[in-house]
Amino acid sequence: MKLSNDTLAELPEAIIRPSYDRAALRPGIVHIGVGNFHRAHQAWYLHRLMQEGLAQDWAIIGAGVRSYDAAMRSKLLAQDCLTSLIELDPSGMSAEVVGSMIDYLPIEEGNGPLIRAMSDPAIRIVAMTVTEGGYYIDPATDAFDASHPDIRNDLANPAAPVTWIGAVLAALSARRDAGHGPFTVQSCDNLRGNGDISRAAVTTMARLSDPALADWIEAEVTFPNSMVDCIVPATGEAELALARKIGLDDAAPVTHENYRQWVLEDAFCAGRPAWEKAGATLTPNVHDYEAMKIRILNGGHQVLANAGELLAAGTIHGCMTDPDIFSFFMRVQEEEIVPHVAPVPGMTPSAYLDLIRRRFSNPEIADTTRRVAFDGSSRHPGFVLPILRDALGAGGPVDGLCLVEALWARMCAATRDDGSPIEANDPDWDALHTVALAARQEPAAWLAQSHIYGDLAAEPQVADRFGAWLDALWRDGTRATLARYAAGRKG
């Protein structure tokens, strides 16, 4: 059954579908970056409210700022912006059609349609899932990188920006000049302090181009921090076939685990949906929740992914069933990650690690190591290196974290242990690959990437342990090296 408004009533009875009148929905949110995660997370929370007769004036308008977003736009518009969510769990499978998104803006050079949509006073939240790299953070300083070519372009061409930051500034400027109020900028990305990072990006760029606008933004616009969590694999042929099997002809179905969490600050300058009535947690203490999740889950993903790539373990579940990768994962977590995580109400770090172990081991979720390893040049500085710095500061062990970095360097050499090639998997892949090959003979070359490691190369313990592990990976192979670490032996 081709998914559309007209066919909703004809879907198989077991598939949950919108009970609300989609034609009566009015927009209140523009969301930039309509990928699988957004549709399984924020869009789902809003859909749940709409199912209860709430938030009818908060519907989502989708948007993108890159040319490749046009493909998703075409797919979703052809099915009235409906998305089927397929929950995969060992105890059973279920499906639901989500209807909280009602339009998808044209993807145009200069982002005119996006700027005009955000300038409409009906839009009270502008949200985004643009990945860690979309915030233009300099890993060496953790500050907004105003020297990036994209940012320099937007400063020179404020009416035709290429970034979401430039588009947001253009829209906020138009709203201020028209006497309209501001909107909330709501990051839904996996970054600790994602609201603070968004605020720094927007206000820093505004300060460089229009100081008066920067003052207005600092006084009027809010940037709530949030923690988002749901494992959502990429969609491929298997997912498309699964949707068809259960009676859905969806060009962009989303599979996901039976777990969601959303923790956010109640800081919305123009109102918000009643997120808490759909299960979200509103708290001023987001940072401890996000630190637990980003370090144990996202950091844990990086512990697994590069080892999995090198040993041809194609999925995170496959990594968890490999005894050497699993033992490596658990020892790094228990000895070098969990000790640097604070508890949150109702959850200790050890209990959260047990939850993550079970979630990663879900055999129904085909979350690929390639997806998880993508963009290591953003994910390692964001998820792994802060733990390494804390461990050094506390005088704790760092051997496993140094091995994690050595595995990434070895993976970027672009061959697995069995000799098969690893395809490019990072926006900076060519540069990483060149350095990885040089590091085979001179490990210090890898740590010398100051835009990633900052001053960590000057830490004798890091330089020594990283170099020893990288030598071991090239000399003895990944499996033997992981087993040596798990057994408590040095590289």
TrEMBL record:
Pfam families the UniProt entry points to: Mannitol_dh, Mannitol_dh_C
Domain of life the protein comes from: Bacteria
GO function terms (MF aspect): oxidoreductase activity, acting on the CH-OH group of donors, NAD or NADP as acceptor
Keywords linked to the UniProt accession: Oxidoreductase
All residue ranges annotated as the Mannitol dehydrogenase N-terminal domain in the record: 28-277
Keyword Oxidoreductase recorded: yes
InterPro entries: 6-PGluconate_DH-like_C_sf, 6PGD_dom2, Mannitol_DH, Mannitol_DH/Oxidoreductase, Mannitol_DH_C, Mannitol_DH_N, NAD(P)-bd_dom_sf
Domain Mannitol dehydrogenase C-terminal: 285-474
Gene3D superfamilies in alphabetical order: N-(1-d-carboxylethyl)-l-norvaline Dehydrogenase, domain 2, NAD(P)-binding Rossmann-like Domain
PANTHER family according to UniProt: MANNITOL DEHYDROGENASE 2-RELATED, MANNITOL DEHYDROGENASE DSF1-RELATED
Protein name: Mannitol 2-dehydrogenase
Organism: Poseidonocella sedimentorum
